[in-house]
Amino acid sequence: MSAVTIYHNPKCGTSRNTLALIRHAGIEPEIVLYLENPPDRDTVRQLVKDAGLSVRDALREKGTPYQELGLDNPELTDEQLLDAIAAHPILLNRPFVVADKGTRLCRPSEVALEILPAMPAKAFAKEDGTPILDASGQQVRNG
After folding, report:
1. Which of 4, 12, 44, 59 does the annotation list as catalytic?
2. Which of 62, 80, 92, 114 counts the most CB atoms within 10 A of its CB?
3. Can you give the pLDDT at residue 141?
């Protein structure tokens, strides 16, 4: 069985949908409630790198102190952005998922399919009813 870790915020619909998708694959992941147990700077740096993102790409703006902290300033360094995430973990976008096949920021939740094992032949839909997998376990292309 694959080892999977999700950096999860249970208040976030995308994070909940991603967790449900992982469980649909038959995997009970390690769940890191990153707001309660924030990852250290090196872990954040590695998550971002492994996901093929920049630190700036991993920042969450909505519902965070992003604007108040002036994080839209393009001259801020990665180290300064990591300092902000360390001080305010809500700034780290979610959910990050780490699996044997790689690391992804799973926005939207179906990005997790890139790194999860083959899905069972069973339909899956998001909380809002949007189909993700058809009855054969194949990804449904929405929009």
Report:
1. 12
2. 92
3. 85
